[in-house]
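Q: Hi! First time asking for a complex rather than a single chain. Here are the components, and I think there are two in total. Is that enough to go on?
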Amino acid sequence: MSGSRAGGSGQLSGPGGLSGRGRLSAPGSLADSSVVVGVGDRDTTAVGLRELNGLLPDEPLPELAKRYGLKPSAARPPLGEYIKRLWRRRYFISGFATARNVAMYTDSRLGQVWQILTPLLNVAVYYLIFGEILNTKRGVDNFVSFLVIGVFVFNFTQRSFLTSSRVMFDSLPLIRALYFPRACLPLGYVLIELQQLAIAFVVLFAIVLASGEPLTWYWLLLIPVLILQTLFNAGASFILARFGAGLDDVSQLLPFIVRTWFYVSGVIFSIPLYAVQAHSSLASHPLLAKVLQYNPAAIYITLARNALMASQRLSTPGSKPYNQALCNLFKNPPKPGANLLDSAYCHGIASTGHLWLMGAVWAIVALVVGFVFFWRAEVRYGRG
Amino acid sequence: MAEAKPMVVVDDLHVVYRVYGGGGDRGTAATALLRMMRKQKRPSIREVHAIRGISFVAYRGDAVGVIGRNGSGKSTLLRAIAGLLPAEHGAVYTDGHGALLGVNAALLEDLTGDKNVVLGCLAMGMNRQEVKESYPHIVEFSGVGDFINLPMKTYSSGMGSRLRFAIASAKSHDILLVDEALATGDAEFRRKSHRRIDELREQAGTVFLVAHNLNEIEETCNRVIWLEKGQIVQAGDDVTGIIDAYLDAVGGEPMVREPAHPRP
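A: Yes, that's all I need. Here is the structure of the assembled complex.
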């Protein structure tokens, strides 16, 4: 209570200590009940004055606020209302994504070409190291397409994760200046990645066609795959955005988690094929093979490959009735590279139907859990 | 008692900042490990009690000036009203949401001014038609001219805060909180922004203004709150009286006024 610098004109005293007896108001100002002081005399006509000593004024402030329908300034809107507000901001979300997308590469000479160049260079590196040197392409038909689809599809989830963990921090000035549902921001970032994916997929289609895959109606299945993946990414982004807003440790740790995820999700090797190959570690751990295959990244990658690659559809283990002789022929081909499609006669980990089902479950669960989790901290974003 | 509708009710508000790592063991690996082993919380949390029990009511159509020295809690109070800071004790009740205009100049600084205008308006909940209608007014009001097509990070701080003010004031907010945002503008912009604040008040809004320039408070505000170390020293609508008392207390020169002070 050391604020008593108010020695100036006689009418004003300091806050008068905790007794609440000090008269703090400016002369004559309280008659028309204007802005009112923190501590004051009981006889003031001020609206909503509460004395620190516990004597209540005519009307306690919370009741006054309630009577006029005022809400706590840091209150979170109910979930339904929140979704409604979010929907009203849909043009903001799309505009935010597009503008950010264009601005992202303004500092580099090649500009948006990097959106395609970066995953392509990644593909080249992986092809060289894993495909050729470590020979993960063994048993996979058309490994180039296999790898390109895996890298591009995983890249969508990976980038959504990494960028959304920073979104609340990056947008701090915006959050602190204007009120809008904060869920716009992670959604906007996922939309940015979706737009980049659309560009990258033009290149991907060209590579897949050039590598000899036929253009079939199955390609249309890519659309539901990407919808499910986008929903999953959005849900996960909500969770990461909330974590990333509070703890810097998350954005430090996340690249390692995502990289581990990359290696176990069958981007550079085929989980189902690996699981039927003799001497592979997955063959002796069927449960591990199941866990790997049912992780969301592996599901969306596998479904995308099945949509675009005829050889994948035909060679997926479990896609044909089990036939031990043919399966063995795949495991021990008379000459390397022959009998690739016979893997279809081996036992599979998961049927395509199961993959679709689990892909949808992952997407819906992630979206609902993530959205609610993000919404619950709505009023905390932007505080520093 | 009150014909005017209260817009902001601040009830015995306390705000405490927690500052991490204020102590000597700042973030070395060994101390962090030790802390985790002992299951302690973050190291040496220092608490700064920035607002210590403030209560007041502001009504529709008020322009409230907040004065006080550096560190007296003015900006903290505004951020608490905007709902950006949690109350340790007590509460802030508002009618609608507050828009806070601070000194940091950009909204999305790597985007052009033009994009900032459009996105800012959309974020405030305008539809695309309204944005199209407001756009020319905002650009004209901000006076940034050809810079509108350049990224906001290239703006001077004055240009940045002008554009921000123009964007935020394009929509009639229930509560507009202006934290020194007008200080960087030139004389012409200050005149324009005062007019705009008056308009906002007429549209049943409430404006809070933090400024070290007491002339600005006197010209713009009909009520004033004087803060000192997180508490109210004086508050009321005797703007000139309180400002004089404040000047007296801080040892400043008394303000020279025209005999008949014009009141907008």
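A: Residues 113 and 146 of chain B are 10 Å apart (CA to CA). Let me know if you'd like any chain examined more closely.
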